[in-house]
Amino acid sequence: MKFYIEKEKLSKHKELESIVCDWCKTAFKASEQNEDAIDIENKFDNTKSGYEVNEFTLKWKVGNNYPDGGFGEEEFIDLCFECREKLKELLLKNGIVIQKRNWDY
Ligand SMILES: [Zn+2]
Known about the structure:
By secondary structure, the chain is of the alpha+beta class. The protein contains 2 helices and 4 strands, in the order ββαββα. It has one domain (about 20-95).
């Protein structure tokens, strides 16, 4: 027979508090009601529902990738919805080709 006692377990965890746009420096903060990280990221992405997708990724990744693991460094930026559109215009105006492909799963 096993006997259990109740114990309080204290642990620390990281909770997303805000995202600051790396271009316009606007801070997008979580509300007082302790929203979870997914909600604040949706606000940052300017999506209207949990089903809408509006992602942006710009990163440089260097390092080594082996079958059982890897390591390296990434350079990346977080941009708000408006600054992403500004960056897209800037790239297009400077002759950068932005490729398109459909996705489905
Ligand atoms: Zn911005």
